[in-house]
Prior knowledge:
By secondary structure, the protein is α+β, with helices and mostly antiparallel strands. The chain has one domain: RelE-like (YaeB-like fold). It has helices at residues 9-15, 20-36, 38-42, and strands at residues 2-7, 50-51, 60-63, 68-77, 80-90. A five-stranded mixed β-sheet has the order 1-5-4-3-2. The longest helix has 17 residues, at 20-36. The protein is globular and about 35 Å long.
Amino acid sequence: MRCSVDITEDAASDLTKVPVHIASKLEYWVNAVEKYGIEAVRKVRGYHDEPLKGDRKGQRSIRLNKAYRAIYIETKKCEVRLILIIEVNKHDY
């Protein structure tokens, strides 16, 4: 199944505030998802792709490094799986 990744305006705004290497890692993730599919990229342990809980149920996150993560939602339309990145933030531990 083909994957298409979109970035919301809010997430694009978030990306202007993060270090360049964080934005580059997200771009690499987007390219990998579009090329290999989300199932294959989820197997890459370095991203720590995981479903979220509580108020964010239905959303997933990937780690861009120890401090930053990207949050996305996944939907299916016909033969295309849409991935919408909704937020890039500095994670509080």
